[in-house]
Amino acid sequence: MNLKIAVLAGDGIGPEISAQGVDVMQAVCNKFGHSVSFTPALVGAAAIDAVGDPFPSETLRICQDSDAVLFSAVGDPKFDNDPSAKVRPEQGLLAMRKQLGLFANIRPVETFPCLLHNSPLRPDLVAGADFICIRELTGGMYFGEKFESDDRAYDTNAYTRPEIERILRVAFDYARRRRGHLTVVDKANVLASSRLWRKIAQEMAPQYPDVTTDYMYVDNAAMRMIQDPRFFDVMVTENTFGDILTDEGSVISGSMGLLPSASTGTGTPVFEPIHGSWPQAKGLNIANPLAQILSVAMLFEYFDLKAEGALIRQAVNASLDACVRTPEIQVEGGEKYGTKEVGEWIVRYINDAPLA
Ligand code: IPM
Ligand code: MG
Questions:
Q1: Are residues 112 and 215 in the same domain?
Q2: Which ligand 1 atom lies nearest to the CA of residue 75?
Q3: In sequence order, which ranges of the chain are alpha helices (DSSP H)?
Q4: Total domains, the chain
Q5: Domain final residue pick, 218, 236, 260
Q6: Which one of 35, 134, 165, 320 is separated from 234 by 20 to 30 angstroms, measured CA to CA?
Q7: Is the domain of 124 the same as that of 237?
Q8: What is the CA(243)–ligand 1 centre distance, in A?
């Protein structure tokens, strides 16, 4: 296969983890005889600093011209503490999602047995939890009509039937390929938009007789995720609820630095870690590159290159077993490995792996 990849490294630790993702992708392509080309493009604060726009049109063009986007992270504290800033790095991410039509955000929550002790939950509660949150990504409050004055402000949470149907279809299809259990998360006891979600989900459910569909209010779902995370298989929800619940999901596994995500829709798909730009760690070579590297696994799997994805997952597990780990997950007394050293170890593992 011939793959054209847009590389959007962004801010903070973004460039450091991006470099490891690129090297791993290159190694896997060499191994399996795929050709790949990487085109870097500006996004986030880096793009604001360079050209005054967090998602420049040149970046959009490069993304549109690629088969997939390998994205890292955006965000810079110099914008966070300035409510009057006219342009923010995060707008780059939202613009990218909208302009590439990425309406479905797929965030797996997986546990790694050797990291269970890092979970804020009791290991016996969280062991074996394995679910996917599917978040609607281009509608709802984040994109609805807004108003802002000194003494009044609002955001509107509007959803249309086609927007709801297409994301539910993605969710039902995932559930069918997994354990056949879909939880539709909403706030239908209060919100009109949620009632439309629920109504449409109930209309569609009979088309998926192999899927058990249940409905849960978002507050209850937030609770259930920490009480009984193994309950979930696939959950689907609107943009705002999904934003909140996926952060919760990312920490309960104890492996936030290991969780990748995919955003798909009508345009070029984007693969990125779920964690942010961690500006305090910028340039220190301490950020965990595994979520970025596992994003590359998701990328291959998206193109149905299963063996390629599996080799990356195997390499990541081997690195954890060998305690080749960045500081935040290293065992006591374990050797020190930086972002780069973990990436290099994984590349070597891939180079040396026998091909099945
Ligand atoms: C995420 C992030 C973004 C979001 C921010 C950075 C705009 O938190 O991908 O979850 O809220 O969508
Ligand atoms: Mg978020």
A1: yes
A2: 6
A3: 14-32, 45-51, 57-64, 77-80, 89-99, 123-126, 161-177, 192-204, 218-227, 239-252, 290-302, 306-321, 339-352
A4: 2
A5: 260
A6: 320
A7: yes
A8: 6
290-302 vs 339-352: helix axis angle to the nearest 10?
A: 40
Pairing between β-strand 146-148 and β-strand 270-273 as defined by DSSP bridges: unpaired
Residue of 98, 159, 174, 187 marked catalytic:
187
| C-alpha 36: how far from chain center | 22
159 a catalytic residue: no
Q: Residue 245 Cα, ligand 2 centroid: separation in angstroms?
A: 9
pLDDT tens, the chain, 356 aa long: 999 999 999 999 999 999 999 999 999 999 999 999 999 999 999 999 999 999 999 999 999 999 999 999 999 999 887 777 889 999 999 999 999 999 999 999 999 988 998 899 999 999 999 999 999 999 999 999 999 999 999 999 999 999 999 999 999 999 999 999 999 999 999 999 999 999 999 999 999 999 999 999 999 999 999 999 999 999 999 999 999 999 999 899 888 889 999 999 999 999 999 999 999 999 999 999 999 999 999 999 999 999 999 999 999 999 999 999 999 999 999 999 999 999 999 999 999 999 86
Residue span of the structural domain in which 110 resides: 103-260
Residue ending a domain, choose from 260, 282, 303:
260
Among all bound ligands, the one having the nearest atom to the CA of 92 is 1
Please check whether residues 59 and 130 belong to one and the same domain: no
- pTM, full prediction: 0.93
Residues 222 and 323 in one domain: no
CATH number at residue 340: 3.40.718.10
Shared-domain flag, residues 59 and 154: no
Q: Which tokens hold the place of 248?
A: 């919760």
